[in-house]
Design goal:
Layout lengths: L2 H14 L5 H13 L3 H6 L7 H15 L4 H5 L1 E4 L2 E4 L9 H13 L7 E5 L5 H9 L4 E6 L2 H13 L6 E5 L13 E4 L6 H4 L11 H4 L4 H12 L5 E5 L5 H10 L3 E7 L5 E7 L2
Parallel strand pairs: 3-4, 3-6, 4-5, 6-7
Antiparallel strand pairs: 1-2, 7-9, 8-9
């Protein structure tokens, strides 16, 4: 069987199992199995595959067919300018979170050596992206999970950012590190247990404690009033349909200039406000 035939059959198989991007995922998985770039897959489209190669491809495609996230199968994922190691220790970095980072960069434009706090850092995606793109910033990242912090440390080393981000084990519900910080950013767990069953099957492979939770935005917003410098912003990523309620929460807690921003899909995704 040629590489081209395996690619076509793999994409068809994933489409039958309702994978959102079957062709792209098939290309990525076959590339992983064979050690090829996506371009090489097409340059060697007519090459017959050996049995060992076929077995390797089938194993990865079968895992994706069971709706295991592609990022976990590949073991890495791109996030802005970084390549991050991805596994079950933390949530997979998502494109909408890149927009959260973009908004933080806009808010910090012109700031000299800003102090930044990332609450619930997981894989370290947000903190490391900010440290990468704001090299003069002092970035602190906290998470309750020791496993997630270990992954964040690995990602810092992988991207040449070791020592650029202070990683602390801390439960944000018990308070935040002492400030003053020029920006606090957080993507806390915000999926309710009732919602989880109705979401895509891939989410069931991700760490539940990082995904499912209620009251996280409120807990961070209350704690951030003590950690933020006067006038400094708090920036949240929120789930679908949550922006209005989180914006109302920030207003009730005394934050000013409360604003909602949409992601590239047009969904209300980022909510921010400034400490008064």
């Amino acid at each position: 069987m040629t590489l081209g035939e395996v690619l076509r059959r793999s994409a068809d198989y994933l489409a039958e199992r309702e994978v959102e991007t079957p062709r792209l995922d098939a290309e990525l998985l076959l590339g992983k199995a064979l050690g090829y770039s996506r371009l090489q897959l097409y340059l060697e489209h007519d090459r017959p595959l050996a049995k060992a190669e076929l077995d390797a491809c089938r194993e990865l495609v079968a895992r994706r067919g069971r709706r295991e996230p592609a990022a976990y199968i590949l073991g890495e994922w791109g996030f802005r300018r970084l390549t991050l190691t991805t596994d079950r220790r933390a949530l997979i970095p998502r494109p909408e979170t890149e927009m959260l980072v973009e908004r933080c960069l806009e808010l910090l434009a012109g700031a000299e050596r800003p102090r930044i706090l990332d609450v619930g850092t997981g894989s370290g995606a947000i903190a490391l992206a900010l440290a990468d793109e704001l090299p003069e910033a002092a970035v602190t990242a906290v998470d309750l999970s020791a496993e997630a912090l270990a992954l964040a440390a690995e990602n810092a080393e992988r991207n040449g950012l070791s020592g650029k981000v202070e990683l602390l084990r801390r439960d944000f519900r018990a308070g935040l590190p002492p400030g003053p910080f020029d920006l606090v950013v957080s993507n806390p767990p915000y999926v309710s247990p009732a919602e989880l069953e109705g979401l895509e099957p891939e989410l069931r492979h991700e760490p539940r404690k990082a995904l499912v939770g209620e009251g996280g935005h409120e807990a961070v917003a209350i704690a951030a009033r003590e950690a933020l410098a006067p006038g400094a912003p708090l920036v949240f990523e929120v789930g679908d349909g949550q922006a209005a309620s989180v914006a109302e929460l920030l207003t009730k807690l005394g934050y000013s200039e409360v604003r909602i921003s949409r992601d590239l899909a047009g969904r209300e995704r980022v909510v921010e406000g400034r400490r008064t």
